């Protein structure tokens, strides 16, 4: 088990190297003048200053030198101050947001994380539960309904479903507004009386003892979570159902019945754990997807997570910001995949021992 | 057939039809008649062999007896109680007395449970052993089937086919059942392992006074282990009698054909003997022939065979045959 985890961890730097190469490769489509904008904070600059910066960051040098400079940045020989260098957390300067990309991520990622935290439960477990029930009631009315529900869920695009619920629950009923938090509370949150412990608004509001803010924050997350859930329920339902049906046909399930187990134990002790393997993979992808920012959902509900921010930067042709976010998402992807792999080994003894 | 105290299991007109659904509205258009009116008895402590080609319904018979499938019709009387009428909890408790050894030692063990969990689970769900003693009990069971008790914490995929089958046997024995359905327990095993497992089954039978329904298609193995043998063809039993009687004096043309196909380990004798070679294929169990099931391939079939189904009758004491012409072969 330990060797398995260590082997997985050893792969992380290798994969990260691949990710940086890929993103650095994308940067090469820009000409040096555009690339140097990554390091410019206060515009405008004269042509001579730009030339000096290009030389400073080696943008006129061979490609491996450029890659190295991109990774570690440049240390000023006199002041000994480092500038640039993605390894040191400098992802460049976001022109459209007027702040460093790293700061932007620091501001927006907690919002995405907050949404993910509350969405995981409904997104994953409801779909799995529905799938198990449908498989156990194979070809019965519940199963048929679940299949219809799942086909609608799969074929309905996020932006259509999102706009429909926004229309119903916000425009018509006025229950769940879009955005992050109501205006009256946003001032309190940015004031000194509100302490940011975790930067996750839902948790911080509770820690500050402001239950009214917590409720308001949750109200804003209901519709994004509903949208994310409905779309993924369909997928989880289908995968769980087919995997469960396959498992229920296995001989060891018959063995369990022959042992004299109750039908409940047969399903929940023997069939379900075995049927969960493909679902675990899917759940892993889902969580990674949520953490990487759900671009359309965040955009539809005007939710200030990293997905919506990256999308807005892309629309304004702010390549540096988009690539910074891509790099960050890649990092999350690699790390969460390792976590999923380790969880997988916990669930299936065959993975652990081979 | 009359039953008395010696009879552990009495199967009467057991029928298992699997419905076939077609079309948009999943209308039932027919049924696969996997088992179509099977009657026999198994005495305490005996081994009844059940042989037949693949797909003749022998495994289904075994599973239907244990109520792993709910039979379409007929009754299964086990120890004086009708299993078909039992439901839920009552049936679950009854399972303690009747167990099954499965054909495929790979598929029939849950890959995510250790040997101890697999073998110990029946003890726990039936509450026969205090939870603290389960582990000890499992080790003892593993010893009984000649497995190293130290293997208890391993997973099934770490074992060979023969070892897995012995895990399956230990599992079946855990509740000290009186009756075990052995569903082709050796056909998935290497020939070198087959004898080991069969000998183990025989030893255990003596040790625990077990009654077996031994399902197989290997005629010589069945002859070795069984006291009496039943021959199945297309969902019905065509002949049932004592082991030696069946092998020496088969009365049904299908049994004769089956026996003539058994290879003799002597090239000269093998070349000289007369073989009955059946023509055609086994008809579909979804659409079986009228009258006698075997008539389409029978070398001695006549017109009446298509009209009525031959009764399964006692031609000689203890020798049951379902053929109109059984007397022809009596010498």
In short:
With 354 residues, chain A is mainly α.
Describe this protein's structure.
The complex is a heterodimer of chains A (354) and B (331). Chain A is mostly helical and 354 residues long. In chain A, 73% of the residues lie in helices and 2% in strands. In chain A, the strands form two sheets. Chain A has a two-stranded antiparallel ribbon. A two-stranded antiparallel ribbon of chain A has the order 3-4. The mean pLDDT of chain A is 84. With 331 residues, chain B is an alpha/beta fold. Helices cover 30% and strands 24% of the residues of chain B. Chain B is globular. The mean pLDDT of chain B is 89. The chains are: A mainly alpha (354), B alpha/beta (331). Chain A binds chain B through residues 139, 250-252, 254-262, 265, 270, 273-274, 347-350, 353, and chain B through 26, 63, 66, 68, 89, 92-93, 95-96, 99-100, 102, 104, 107-112, 121-122, 125-126, 155, 157-158, 168, 171, 175.
Runs of chain B in which pLDDT lies below 50 for 5 or more consecutive residues are none
Structural class of chain B: alpha/beta
The succession of helices and strands of chain A, N to C, reads HHHHEEEEHHHHHHHHHHHH
| CATH hierarchy: architecture of the largest domain in chain A | Orthogonal Bundle
Largest sheet of chain B: 8 strands, mixed
Helix share, percent of chain B:
25-40%
């Amino acid at each position: 088990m330990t060797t398995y985890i260590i082997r997985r961890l050893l792969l992380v730097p290798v994969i990260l190297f691949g990710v940086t190469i890929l993103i650095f490769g994308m940067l090469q489509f820009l000409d040096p003048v555009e690339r140097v904008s990554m390091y410019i904070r206060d515009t405008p600059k004269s042509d001579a200053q730009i030339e000096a910066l290009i030389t400073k960051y080696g943008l006129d040098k061979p490609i491996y030198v450029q890659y190295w400079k991109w990774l570690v940045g440049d240390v000023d020989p006199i002041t000994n101050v480092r500038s640039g260098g993605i390894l040191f957390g400098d992802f460049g300067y976001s022109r459209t947001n007027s702040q460093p990309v790293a700061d932007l991520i620091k501001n927006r990622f907690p919002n995405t994380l907050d949404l993910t935290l509350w969405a995981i439960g409904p997104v994953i477990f409801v779909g799995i539960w529905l799938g198990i029930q449908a498989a156990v009631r194979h070809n019965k009315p519940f199963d048929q309904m679940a299949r219809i529900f799942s086909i609608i869920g799969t074929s309905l695009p996020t932006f259509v479903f999102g706009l429909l619920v926004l229309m119903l629950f916000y425009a018509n009923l006025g229950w769940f507004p879009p955005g992050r938090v109501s205006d009256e509370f946003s001032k309190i949150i940015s004031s000194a009386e509100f302490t940011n412990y975790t930067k996750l608004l839902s948790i911080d509001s509770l820690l500050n003892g402001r239950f009214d803010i917590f409720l308001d924050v949750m109200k804003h997350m209901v519709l994004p979570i509903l949208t994310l859930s409905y779309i993924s329920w369909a997928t989880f339902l289908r995968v769980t159902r087919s995997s469960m049906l396959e498992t229920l046909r296995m001989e060891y399930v018959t063995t369990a019945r022959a042992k004299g187990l109750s039908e409940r134990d047969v399903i929940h002790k023997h069939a379900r754990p075995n049927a969960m393997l493909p679902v675990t993979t899917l759940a892993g992808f889902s969580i990674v997807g949520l953490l990487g920012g759900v671009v359309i959902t965040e955009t539809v509900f005007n939710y200030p997570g990293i997905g919506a921010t990256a999308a807005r930067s892309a629309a304004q042709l702010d390549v540096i910001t988009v690539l910074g976010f891509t790099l960050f998402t890649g990092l999350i992807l690699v790390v969460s995949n390792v976590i999923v792999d380790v969880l997988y080994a916990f669930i299936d003894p065959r993975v652990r021992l081979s | 057939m009359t039953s008395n105290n010696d009879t552990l299991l009495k199967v009467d007109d057991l029928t298992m039809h699997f419905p076939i659904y077609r079309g948009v509205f999943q209308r039932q258009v027919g049924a696969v008649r996997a088992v179509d009116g099977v009657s026999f008895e198994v005495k305490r402590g005996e081994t009844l062999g059940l042989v037949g080609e693949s797909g003749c319904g022998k495994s289904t018979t075994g599973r239907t007896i244990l109520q792993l499938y709910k039979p379409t019709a007929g009754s299964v009387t086990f120890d004086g109680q009708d299993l078909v009428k039992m439901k839920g909890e009552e049936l679950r408790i009854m399972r303690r007395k009747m167990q099954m050894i499965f054909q495929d030692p790979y598929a029939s063990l849950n890959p995510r449970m250790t040997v101890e969990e697999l073998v110990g689970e029946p003890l726990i769900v039936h509450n026969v052993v205090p939870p603290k003693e389960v582990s000890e009990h499992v080790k003892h069971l593993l010893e009984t089937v000649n497995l190293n008790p130290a293997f208890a914490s391993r997973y099934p995929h770490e074992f060979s086919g023969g070892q897995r089958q012995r895990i399956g046997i230990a599992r079946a024995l855990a509740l000290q059942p009186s009756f075990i359905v052995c569903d082709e327990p050796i056909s998935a095993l290497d020939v070198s392992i087959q004898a080991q497992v069969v000998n183990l089954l025989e030893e255990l039978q003596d040790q625990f006074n077990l009654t077996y329904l031994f399902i197989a298609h290997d005629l010589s193995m069945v002859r070795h282990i069984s006291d009496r043998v039943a021959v199945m063809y297309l969902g019905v039993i065509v002949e049932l009698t004592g082991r030696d009687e069946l092998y020496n004096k088969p009365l049904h043309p299908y049994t004769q054909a089956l026996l003539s196909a058994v290879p003799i380990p002597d090239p000269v004798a093998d070349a000289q003997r007369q073989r009955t070679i059946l023509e055609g294929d086994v008809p579909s169990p979804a659409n079986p022939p009228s009258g006698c099931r075997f008539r389409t391939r029978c070398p001695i079939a006549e017109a009446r065979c298509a009209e009525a189904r031959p009764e399964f009758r006692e031609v000689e004491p203890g020798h049951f045959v379902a053929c109109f012409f059984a007397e022809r072969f009596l010498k």
